[in-house]
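Hey Z.,

So I finally got round to the zinc ion thing we talked about over coffee. Here's the setup:
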Amino acid sequence: MIDVGVRPDDHIYPSATKACAVLSRIDIGRSIHCVVLKTGFDGDVFVGSSVVDMYAKCGDIRDARKVFDIMPKRNVVSWGGMIHGYTQLGEADEALRMFKQVLWEDLDVNGCIFSSAIRVCGNSTLLELGKQIHGLCLKMSYDSSCFVGSALISLYSKCGVIEGAYKVFDEISVKNLGMWNAMLIACAQHAHTNKAFDLFKRMECVGMKPNFITFLCVLYACSHAGLVEEGKYYFELMKKYGLEPGDQHYASMVDLLGRAGKLQDAVSIIDKMPIRPTESVWGALLTGCRIHGDTELAAYAADRVFELGPVSSGMHVLVSNAYAAAGRYEEAAKARKMLRDRGVKKETGLSWVEEGNRVHRFAAGDRRHSKSVEIYKKLEELGDEIERAGYIADTSFVLQEVDSDEKNQAIRYHSERLAIAFGLITFPPGRPIRVMKNLRVCGDCHTAIKFMSKCSGRVIIVRDNNRFHRFEDGKCSCGDYW
Ligand SMILES: [Zn+2]
Ligand SMILES: [Zn+2]
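And the result:
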């Protein structure tokens, strides 16, 4: 168009930027933005908003914000783009701040903005705030939208309220695939395995065609419950639906077989893969080897990981531990050194808990909280109580957990324990304590929290970066698989 001298207008620019967003082609998006500026369309609310949305969806929130901040007039697309962008990046505070601001604007807030805000609450386990937004959706009749519905299901599931997720699912009569998948993930996360299988059957009955994600969910449910035969069934079923398993489906199968101790079967699945096994596939095998103490196979898998080239920092830890267990200390040291050389910044272990509209954050050994004295006193008391109930501290986790910077801290003051103690002294009896953690829960804390749930008679829900734990009466919903 530009070549033949036709000037794009306020309809054509948004279409072009939308295409860039869908394809994640920020390079072309930037060129279009330049043409927008040259042709003086940057002041146009539709064009400007579409540019903001494009940058945000392509993951460049800073450029999105630059354009957003200087716009003379904004609409739901620009607000929605920004809120979605911050949500995707996990910047919950900014996403929620903008959400509150947009409610004050005289705009018709759409389902997209609501679903982003609900997702933020789900990702940060902010149940109370999420419920308030749910209430707003009901008032504004967005409660029957599938986008909002999927977000709500995931909110309730991630906050440990599976009943809430079922309720939302049942109340929305016309369901899209996203909603079915959201409900399946929720069932898998809560180990409602039979319910997940039922849902899958219901999907087939109503003629909803499952996709890649659907199969990932059922495979995850199988893996969680150690159901090898069912896993194989669904894995084969994928092909009947014309879906070729991707690396994550293979990783799931390897995880399932590995955890069940069928390590050789896992290896033969990997050998038969038509695509190159990825980090997650080897990672799943390494996990199986660790559980079943097969140090030789673990070292073999570790060798394969090294051949892949650069891998994530978590993988270096797995590999290093595998070599160390096999007595190959030089390679173990090498894996650790690679991690250090790459300058991987270790994330600080943080746990947080929501109280009303406030979020209380804790780091390991943290004494900054205004209730610190009471929190530590509660932990001391609880420590004695759980020891009498049979808990023995496993300090080996202090050394093993090299992926967290908490190793130097006394294990009993890990951040999640501080958050739980805060909940115990603050929340009325009977109210479950929901804790969110950005790193994996260590094995010793996992054991300790089981005892804490028994001794205090509380339901304690901890969502770490890996999975979801619901502790009740001395047991955890993960069945110690995590
Ligand atoms: Zn711990
Ligand atoms: Zn658990």
